[in-house]
């Protein structure tokens, strides 16, 4: 009886070890094969329980983003202080890898991670019924060199979001602004708009007359404000490329709730004030031709936009 119990315990722990071997072989189909039919996998980034093809796609995406992904198993044993006979197994691990592929819709960061975590298994026979994984998402993001911002969705009439800023160091006074507002209906549509935006930013950086661009997202509202040297310069984005593709997508039969594009010409842009590092006073950079009223050269001014 004791011998039989030991044999069962060894098999149960071996199932967990086989699971990690599949991960270390970077083979999505091998990972899925360790699960029973309908078996589920969940972790903080999976967006819910995954099974079958959905799990294969999720793990395949991780291997594309981290081609050298591997797990060092720190410990594996029966969970809840019991024996492995009940099929409950716990494992501590350290995930390692370098982000050299697209991840989360963004470009690779080139950063390496060493992320500790834990998995809790429910095992039936020689197959996994469920894996519940845990790791610190904040640590993961920060190891990738990315920002983590904790903020409420809204406080009263004020809502919060995120932004992206492209500035090429041009100090020109803007002669026009193009403003776009898009209302999406889902996270999937927001991700698609974000993909177009990344390509558009790359094209904007090569266009004559472009100064800078500010992209912001607040829930299902996505906004872009682009500064140009004159009101004719924005016409370039209508000629082709990612912007035209995005506009064609907007006018398709089923994409986004609505949108607006526009070009604004400033009525008045006031002086660019710069603080002198010698006397501490603010001076009009243009009127003083780069010199403070105290006679000292002013530091390099910030861009108008």
| SSE arrangement, N to C | HHEHEEEEHEEEEHEEHEEE
Number of strands: 14
Tally of separate domains: 2
Q: Structural class, please? A: alpha+beta
Rounded Rg: 27 Å
Proportion of residues in helical segments: 25-40%
- How would you state the average pLDDT, rounded? 90
Gap between N and C termini: 77 Å
Residue runs with pLDDT of under 50 for 5 or more positions: 1-10
Q: What is the 3D form?
A: elongated
Q: Order of strands across the widest beta sheet?
A: 1-5-4-3-2
Main beta-sheet strand count, sense and barrel state? 5 strands, mixed
Just give the CATH class of the largest domain: Alpha Beta
Beta content comes to 25-35%
Structure description:
The protein has 305 residues and is α+β, with helices and mostly antiparallel strands. It folds into 2 domains: 2-143, Nuclear Transport Factor 2, Chain: A; 161-264, 2-Layer Sandwich (Alpha-Beta Plaits), CATH 3.30.70. It is 26% helix and 32% strand. It is built from 6 helices and 14 strands. The chain has helices spanning 2-24, 28-33, 52-65, 137-143, 187-204, 241-250, and strands at residues 35-42, 70-78, 88-98, 112-124, 127-135, 154-155, 158-159, 162-167, 176-183, 210-218, 221-228, 258-264, 273-275, 282-284. The strands form 4 sheets. Strands 1-5-4-3-2 form a 5-stranded mixed sheet. A 5-stranded antiparallel sheet has the order 8-10-11-9-12, covered by helices on one side. It has a two-stranded antiparallel ribbon with strand order 6-7. A hairpin with a 2-residue loop joins β4 and β5 (127-135). α5 (187-204) packs antiparallel against α6. The protein is elongated, with a radius of gyration of 27 Å. The model is unreliable at 1-10 (pLDDT under 50).
